[in-house]
Amino acid sequence: MKVAILGATGAVGRQMIECLEERNIKIDELILLASEKSAGKKMKFKNEEIVVREAKEDSFKGLDVVLGATENSYAKHFAPHIVSSNAVFIDNSSAFRQDDEVPLVIPEINKEDIKNNKGIIANPNCSTIITLMAVAPINKLSKVDFIIASTYQAVSGAGIGGMSELKNQIEELSKDENAKVIPNVFKYPIAHNLIPKIGDACDNLYTKEEMKMQNEGRKIMHLPELKVSCTCVRVPILRSHSISAVVVTKDKLNIDDIKSEMLKFKGVSLVDDLNKDLYPMPINTCNKDIVEVGRIRKDLIFENGIDLFCSGDQIRKGAATNAVEILENL
Amino acid sequence: MKVAILGATGAVGRQMIECLEERNIKIDELILLASEKSAGKKMKFKNEEIVVREAKEDSFKGLDVVLGATENSYAKHFAPHIVSSNAVFIDNSSAFRQDDEVPLVIPEINKEDIKNNKGIIANPNCSTIITLMAVAPINKLSKVDFIIASTYQAVSGAGIGGMSELKNQIEELSKDENAKVIPNVFKYPIAHNLIPKIGDACDNLYTKEEMKMQNEGRKIMHLPELKVSCTCVRVPILRSHSISAVVVTKDKLNIDDIKSEMLKFKGVSLVDDLNKDLYPMPINTCNKDIVEVGRIRKDLIFENGIDLFCSGDQIRKGAATNAVEILENL
């Protein structure tokens, strides 16, 4: 199998290389593609050093799979060339997620959709993946009606630049707590701050990021009527996203049944004993493939409502790991 | 007027001294009381240096008002002595908040309850104050049925110790990102982390902190049927709490009406223009008395639902400022 990573030098691209290696995926040749300015860089895969090449329209000939870790515009530009080269494009951008011809897949939830692909498979939004990993076991017991979610999103969602911006600001402020830090990747300083806007504004005053959980959730879980009201907030954390959610189902569920379903669900780790101080936390999920779920309790408002808190690594299960799992399921 | 601060050397006590000075409250004598180990310390009030005295049962004779900034056990211990000295006890602990004889007051919302006091007036929980400041203007237009809230709570909620723990951990980790930080005030490291448990566990698997928003909200807003499902999360931020909330009212409301009500509401600052990147943020509310409210939008699930995000300083409006405002209204 010949595989390329398009956007290999970014946070998600680098993680894809690591995931391919960790999971021991049989690859005859790995090709690393990036923009002109990254071409020539050397990156390690297994015991090999691979030279990054500039991505061009004719870069995809003879490839079987292209893992995409670029922005929408590059994904849109290269997709037709990938497809016409007969490679499958597993794309982490949001360019094709709502395309009816493109399956949107979290393998633990809807891997059967992969077979409907016509050359492109979309990887969902990071917060959506982490939330749905916690919601899917509940949905197995009773269809989910609606979800109210508030996110606690790490800076890695804005790439390597977001991560170094937080680190630099923290360093500056720990030397001089009145230092005037200048934001660049984010609109405002993120150290010691929260930014309750991720993505552009929509007409309904939600952000595009906030609407993804409903739009992508409907498609992934095959729940066309699903409603999600979501508030996305950037927090000063490096790479794990967390979500506080109320999940309301058609039928009334039992907490113990939900917990046993969580225990059976691949990719989920149930961390839930409030009295023993066991609950999901970013420090525990950071750089791991698992999504932790906990704080499971009966909601105080909705008869059929369940509250929970979940946490997962944004770069891994929120992006690279999920894409590589799609590849494994091809 | 003779005023004492009980617990003057803690984060809230110190802030009370500052608030009394800033607001130019006419005080003939300010007495600073604390535990034995803090007695003898000198603290500044206006141009005076005041020596902290050890709080004793007979410390309250001749006083008019005692502002309490201690833990529950001290509040409970000293309350009868304060009341029998004919001073009014404005208590920031949670010891008396649910006592039927004790008004629980946010002056902008229910200052008329102050007159029912029998010597004790309770200051509400910090997250509750900041959330209700955002919810009260909506409640003026139509009674609130229920609230779904997720909090982003600063470390100042755990006092001066919580603040120095975050600062120290951040410093350690910015020198060596693999440093093993040892938590003390918090159960786990808080730098680069979230802790989704504040307060002890209740039988219903909510925490005591989470139940306060419903229990205190009912009493303050005179809404005995109010339901609140809340998830409280500690975030690595120094002193401003933020809350993401869905507020559902009896009647359907108009966003413009809500915004004009917010603009009229004392203590609230409407910061709400998503396209211009204006929304509430901890860096803007830190060390200020105002509660910022924004991200106001029609909820996607509930016909009568409004989503919002609010932020306010935990030590000020969440504690000291509110107590001093109660004093002003006495």
Q: What would the keywords be for this entry?
A:
homodimer, 330 residues, alpha/beta, Rossmann fold, Dihydrodipicolinate Reductase, domain 2, 2 domains, six-stranded parallel sheet, six-stranded mixed sheet, 14 strands, 31% helix, globular
Explain this structure:
The structure is a homodimer of 330-residue chains. The first copy, chain A, folds into 2 domains: 2-123 and 320-329, Rossmann fold; 128-314, Dihydrodipicolinate Reductase, domain 2 (2-Layer Sandwich), CATH 3.30.360.10. Helix content of chain A is 31%, strand content 23%. Chain A has helices at residues 11-22, 72-84, 107-110, 126-141, 159-175, 208-220, 255-264, 282-285, 316-329; strands spanning 2-6, 29-34, 42-45, 48-51, 53-54, 65-68, 88-91, 120-122, 144-152, 227-231, 240-249, 268-270, 291-298, 305-313. Chain A has a 6-stranded parallel β-sheet, sandwiched between helices. The first copy, chain A, has a 6-stranded mixed β-sheet with strand order 10-9-11-14-13-12. In chain A, helix 1 (11-22) crosses helix 9 (316-329), helix 4 crosses helix 7 (255-264) and helix 4 crosses helix 9. Chain A is globular, with a radius of gyration of 20 Å. Chain A starts with a strand and ends with a helix. The relative contact order of chain A is 0.16. The model of chain A has no long low-confidence stretch (mean pLDDT 97).
